[in-house]
């Protein structure tokens, strides 16, 4: 009985323990939330960041989900592709994952991607003739049109996107991180798609986690987690977190 009490107590304490590590990045940077084809909002937010980033030294970090749902996915990807020669960091999200799986296996993977916003992405690249009911040859033809419109360089750039970035004790991911696993040993699927314990158990290693993927009404800071996805395509609000050794602030467009 005493052993059971100790085990239960340890489990309970692990779930309720708070996160109290200070924010200590090695550099100042801005983390931009899920874009989902909202290029005009991105342009507005970048203007605000430029005003706040007076010396131009703070890095830009994008959490992924650049495509789908919004109407300007092609414009977003082209803008970010041009930033690859700067210090900006673009992470991979689950929607880039679905898009690449469509490119690799259009007949097998296309229906799912189109259902979750791929139709808008195809349209933004000028690809038509498909719908949520398309299959087989129609999806294969759409894939060929998409790759031609994107260009091989952009496709390979998307394949090369990292799944996390870290500065000091602040890590940026797309969806989540398993709180029981070191941040540099996370499974790729967890970083892109999420983990059941992410919002339930605080990390015990002092690593802050900044993420998107899950829409919140307003950006939040809770138990070492910073949420920046304010659902730009649905709400018209795109958020960036400004992170430095002075703390965390938010900007919105």
Q: What are the salient characteristics of this protein?
A:
single chain, alpha/beta, Purple Acid Phosphatase, chain A, domain 2, five-stranded mixed sheet, about 15% strand
Short description:
The protein is of the alpha/beta class. The protein contains nine helices and ten strands.
Describe the fold and architecture:
The structure is a single chain. This protein is an alpha/beta fold. It has two domains: 20-93 and 164-253, 4-Layer Sandwich (Purple Acid Phosphatase, chain A, domain 2); 95-160, no CATH class. The chain is built from nine helices and ten strands. It has helices at 2-16, 39-52, 73-82, 94-104, 106-124, 136-150, 152-159, 188-193, 232-235, and strands at residues 29-32, 59-62, 89-90, 164-167, 170-173, 208-211, 220-222, 225-227, 239-244, 247-252. The strands form two sheets. The protein has a five-stranded mixed β-sheet. A hairpin with a 2-residue loop joins strand 4 (164-167) and strand 5. 40% of the residues are buried.
